[in-house]
Amino acid sequence: MRPSKRQPDEMRAVSFERGVSKHAEGSCLVRFGDTHVLCTASLEEKVPAWLRNSGKGWITAEYGMLPRATGERTRREAASGKQSGRTLEIQRLVGRSLRAVVDLTALGELQITVDCDVLQADGGTRTAAITGGFVALYDCLAWMQARQMITIDRVLKDHVAAVSCGICEGVPVLDLDYAEDSAAGTDANFVMTGSGGIVEIQGTAEGAPFSEEEFQALLALARKGIARLIELQKMAVL
Amino acid sequence: MRPSKRQPDEMRAVSFERGVSKHAEGSCLVRFGDTHVLCTASLEEKVPAWLRNSGKGWITAEYGMLPRATGERTRREAASGKQSGRTLEIQRLVGRSLRAVVDLTALGELQITVDCDVLQADGGTRTAAITGGFVALYDCLAWMQARQMITIDRVLKDHVAAVSCGICEGVPVLDLDYAEDSAAGTDANFVMTGSGGIVEIQGTAEGAPFSEEEFQALLALARKGIARLIELQKMAVL
Amino acid sequence: MRPSKRQPDEMRAVSFERGVSKHAEGSCLVRFGDTHVLCTASLEEKVPAWLRNSGKGWITAEYGMLPRATGERTRREAASGKQSGRTLEIQRLVGRSLRAVVDLTALGELQITVDCDVLQADGGTRTAAITGGFVALYDCLAWMQARQMITIDRVLKDHVAAVSCGICEGVPVLDLDYAEDSAAGTDANFVMTGSGGIVEIQGTAEGAPFSEEEFQALLALARKGIARLIELQKMAVL
Amino acid sequence: MRPSKRQPDEMRAVSFERGVSKHAEGSCLVRFGDTHVLCTASLEEKVPAWLRNSGKGWITAEYGMLPRATGERTRREAASGKQSGRTLEIQRLVGRSLRAVVDLTALGELQITVDCDVLQADGGTRTAAITGGFVALYDCLAWMQARQMITIDRVLKDHVAAVSCGICEGVPVLDLDYAEDSAAGTDANFVMTGSGGIVEIQGTAEGAPFSEEEFQALLALARKGIARLIELQKMAVL
Amino acid sequence: MRPSKRQPDEMRAVSFERGVSKHAEGSCLVRFGDTHVLCTASLEEKVPAWLRNSGKGWITAEYGMLPRATGERTRREAASGKQSGRTLEIQRLVGRSLRAVVDLTALGELQITVDCDVLQADGGTRTAAITGGFVALYDCLAWMQARQMITIDRVLKDHVAAVSCGICEGVPVLDLDYAEDSAAGTDANFVMTGSGGIVEIQGTAEGAPFSEEEFQALLALARKGIARLIELQKMAVL
Amino acid sequence: MRPSKRQPDEMRAVSFERGVSKHAEGSCLVRFGDTHVLCTASLEEKVPAWLRNSGKGWITAEYGMLPRATGERTRREAASGKQSGRTLEIQRLVGRSLRAVVDLTALGELQITVDCDVLQADGGTRTAAITGGFVALYDCLAWMQARQMITIDRVLKDHVAAVSCGICEGVPVLDLDYAEDSAAGTDANFVMTGSGGIVEIQGTAEGAPFSEEEFQALLALARKGIARLIELQKMAVL
């Protein structure tokens, strides 16, 4: 039995609250159970130096966690003067995942920054950030389309969402919360598109190495969970 | 006429949403109109080095703003590697203001950190942070009282709240929003207690210097606004 | 009786020593008793990015303290790798105060940086920095006028000076030295112009909140002290 | 045909040169073709704070790249003042991978730091670092065993090695060099143990998402490559 | 003819103004012509970690330059967030030079920090810092002797002073000012003791390499200049 | 007798291994006994800001040490976030030394960065870096000449090499290794050209000051050692 009483293949309650920011071109407060991430998509008329005059745009992401998003207060990264390796790793992953479904040439020489700030953490913040970040990005593109800047269908090639899976007390389970995440022997994050393509797989043995069979079980769970997340995204952005 | 159609002595809608964090000992999402600040109070069993073995505790505050809390995206302080002068100035002010109503000896050798993170900014973030931070602090102390760690009435000497005032097109007005704040010739922040004592006054001429009469008008408005805020705090923490 | 035997409304001996720097366009070593601040005004042919091609100039200030300006040696900010919140707060205040009496359009697209470095500290370093910084700025403008770059009377709209006041053992006193500053229950800094306009008020309750009456007493003292400082400035720059 | 004329399942020439450092307890210069990584294992009588008095030891890794290890000179991280996200990500991976085969309790309260410095880069530096880092670690443990500090067989539970695979022009290939890595549509790194357990999988779609079938092909290649690397490790440390 | 009309072996006017700091245990404002360096010696009851419980003390130095000490304003190191290589190099040199004449065991487990802050620069700031730093250190030791903490004669083994020499338009000259320093083909700094021992020699060819004969000429000039500086030090501390 | 059994005027075995980097325009692994420094020379089509449009080029150097190049592991500078004073001092010295033999106008508006990374340290790393850095620079210039970009003979005015000398147990000795360096009372580094000109002299008394006679003995040893190093350089680059 999972600590949360869920079935092994059962996700937490997932919701997308759109338009939560007065200022951002797109925004979404995504909740995976008690994990709450505020995602905003900001459009800027600039691109990184290496893309100038290329006609191509850029999608980037930043990730942060409020100091008391966690059970114990964590030191504020702005105060310690640098972003941790974990933060940098996650925001690189979020950016790559979102870019995987965007045609940067169709976007034009513009940059969209997706900020994912964890208001409350209970495991799976990076997968929530990708899944909710997509919705914020979608709304930013809709804002642009409403102003005849782009055509969404040409810029956005597919949906993208992410989920974590792990092996807890020998059982492969879907969408780990913090209690499970801390105890899991193996922990894997999967990012996939609406058409079932794989964008990213990150599997890590926290304790003993895992077998190929175990990995295949996690992959199957992830496929199921992501299909569900993409359904929910589609309902959210209808 | 003010941009928001308010009367000169009319505050924005103010609300306190308590218990918004699963983890923090005290928390409050305070709204002054479109300015939304998430305040959490975190209890830690440590004090700054200069208080060790003194028997006294400490209240400190940190302040942050999500990158897209503002009309234009602001660079993330964690990414730029340091907190701006404005951030440091505000968090020092919030900490001083809250300490003004706390008996640090009655608290005992413990530290409470009040994190004030601006989710959305529309002027007056520092005054909202102080006013909402008080509620988070109150709830943290209530949490401690429930565990027989302290007696609230001995630790908390009074309420404290803050409001900004300014002179806009020659008229003294209460509780500036961003549109007024940008245009105001004079801008002042006041921090006062429930019994009417003054904790902090910060008045700045943005353009032409202001007269003593103008300043007195701002002070009178502030007194009125803060009395109202403290009424609302009292209703919130009943 | 004050530790320095001064009357409540008596300032310390104040002096301005001009032309102390061989290199700077304007310079002044200001002394408020044992508080000594070396102020230099440096003219540069550049302005901050947001003013480029605006035709307007800029006045900015930086503040520093030699490590042994204080009773105990303080860590050198260059060695610790960042300026403290206190430093940033003070230099922002000095810059705002000086800009309050300057017509930036009449200055033209040039920048003057006023560096205020505390050689010896005995309370009131920020008010000495503003008061002496004005003299350095004046001399820089005189240097420019001598070269037909500007007309002082069009650039400089008024004098500006600053003083601190506080309530020590229940008595409102003018121009706190370090011994008083450490013990004062309330501490306020005032910045005013030659014509009596208020540029900045910062009042802080260090211990118990203060009353409106107490604040008015401090304001009256400050008005008197600043009038005297501006007289001295005028004698200095004749 | 691959740029290097290799077969799809053919690795580059791999060699381990042991004992290359006069000072380190263990060291290995590992070469995967033109990728050369100098690995040293340093024993220290300290552990991270959270392990003090736990009786358990720690294995950690750091990663760096000489500025001209690459085709274009890269800025020195010591000069830019921080380690990039990529560097932090890699050194966290190397540390996790090595810890996966070590019994930290059997090690005792000691720390071994494995430094992996890339002298020359031609793709696959992180997989070379893990594979060669294991040899340096082994030699450090042998050094300790020779001094009766530990028994290798109790500390080291298995071998561990890593390899990258990718899909280049539609063909799954093993052990990408830089030319392939830049062009690959999909790039994956695998870390496995001598007994075939999986320690880490990182698969990333650089362009189009990849299918499950493609991923399985990469996994099969990796299994083959890692088995070969572990054979070579065993020959090296005989 | 030198720009300053001095003879080749003529130093600038040198003066030592002692006791310039109200707070420091020892202090000296040293002037080598228009180069003015404020030196303070601060006694602290702590030593670097590697000397704890050794019974030995430590002498260290820090160096800084006010932003407008120079002809053009230099960026404040506290604002740029780090000390330049030049600053670090100079303060290491000052520390080494002073330690060369101190018996650290006789000092006891205490630290004296000599801060050398350049108020005005006109060439030779490092040599003025060493020469004036010695006087500040002497006065700090005298302060300690007056409190029966040490015996000066046991702690201080000799005098130490420094001077620069260079070859300007083919002529070896003593004590370069800024005009000469910028134009000199060769520039050398010498640190020597009262008894004529050499503590440090730093000679650098700015343009063409110099010959051994030229170097010997500089060394002879330095010997003469330092003898004179030590005479002046002795008069100053009598 | 020296720890290494060498005669006082005997250098360690010195070798230059050229072409060790696949990528760099010039490279050299220089060995002075157990001190091994990897030097690469990288050509870039940019110059520092102050040389733009001057027609002149620039030679600069950077220095680093692998963490376990030393007997005890040293903290990685990239991790600590800054280069130490020692590192900055050395890389400034290497750059100055190499520029002393280059005609920057004949080079044209290009920059060559010589990176000197110590793989293993046993004393004398800076002198090895200069001596081996010259060979890397030479090979970079040869690479450029082969592409008709420059004529070596016009760019390179002479050879340059460096060696350390010291007084160990009263005896002047040449080319100190770590054991001697730690114990030496006096330590001096000399940089000279092929034609015998002196580029840099740095002599430091670690303990007691040294006499002029001692210094002359060190200079004579250095002259001999550098003549030998330049012979070896010439054989290496033939």
UniProtKB/TrEMBL annotation, chains A, B, C, D, E, F:
InterPro entries, sorted: ExoRNase_PH_dom1, ExoRNase_PH_dom2, ExoRNase_PH_dom2_sf, PNPase/RNase_PH_dom_sf, Ribosomal_Su5_D2-typ_SF, RNase_PH, RNase_PH_bac-type, RNase_PH_CS
One matching Pfam family: RNase_PH
Exoribonuclease phosphorolytic domain ranges (all copies): 10-140, 160-225
Official protein name in the record: Ribonuclease PH
NCBIfam families: RNasePH (TIGR01966)
Key word tRNA-binding present: yes
Quaternary structure note: Homohexameric ring arranged as a trimer of dimers.
Name of the gene: rph
Catalytic reaction list: tRNA(n+1) + phosphate = tRNA(n) + a ribonucleoside 5'-diphosphate
GO molecular function: 3'-5'-RNA exonuclease activity; tRNA binding; tRNA nucleotidyltransferase activity
Annotated positions binding phosphate: 86, 124-126
